Write the structure tokens for this entry.
Amino acid sequence: VLDRGFVLGDGIYEVIPVYGRKPFRLPQHLARLQNSCDGIRLRNPHDAAGWTALIDELIGRQDFADQNLYLQVTRGVAKRDHAFPQSAEPTVFLMANPLVTPSAEQFEAGVAAVSATDNRWQRCDIKSIALLANVLLRQLAVDAGATETILFRDGYLTEGAASNIFVVKGGVILAPLRNHLMLPGITYDTVIELARAHGVPLEVREISEAEVRAADELWLTSSTKEVLPITRLDGRSVGEGQAGPVARHMLALYQTLKQAG
Ligand code: PDD
């Protein structure tokens, strides 16, 4: 119980989707894991080969092929004190659960979102297990019968409580700037890569709250939700109130990439 993850929230994590027993974009997830370790000055206990071996073993032990793989590293067990312990071994924990991605029907209907002020810290680029602010923000959505909370800081879009957010206006995809105020989502990067590779108009820049509220399409992206349209925001319809053509196009490209491995 004296693990610093449990007592202080002193650790970092990753969520990696596994399709047909193959981890999707593993090098990118391991690179982000390293950035999170560096961000909290925690020694990464494994190199890429070590992580890959652990992950392959975990995947092999499950009797389901599509997996939601969770891993976390904490600063280990030590007498409670905010200061780093002199000698503690990082604690490594991994688990696999069945990966349940949105169905075609859920995609077409989309989900509802609410909005809130982003009151998190200034290092949202670190995938910290200390998720209390995200937990409280996401619960606002659940309390309102919605799925996600879209966050605004100083009048600009950052991300969702547990996802990244994209806007479509006039056929152009708008993606918020990747900086320390949002998590650099692996799905976010993948969508941007796919848009560029397939010539879909894209602007990566600051997006105002007004632009979000006037969007033709809004989507959330994450490793478990993939690309999922948001069709209601704060009780109002987004665009046509159903999945839009750009979302459909991007999800199709994403599915093709997944199948290619
Ligand atoms: N969350 N932003 C936040 C705050 C997130 O928690 C997540 C993912 C994302 C999307 O990142 P990615 O595309 O790499 O999944 C963005 C995971 C799924 C979770 O905490 O369960």
Remarks:
- The first strand starts at residue 11 and ends at 19.
- The two ends are 39 Å apart (CA to CA).
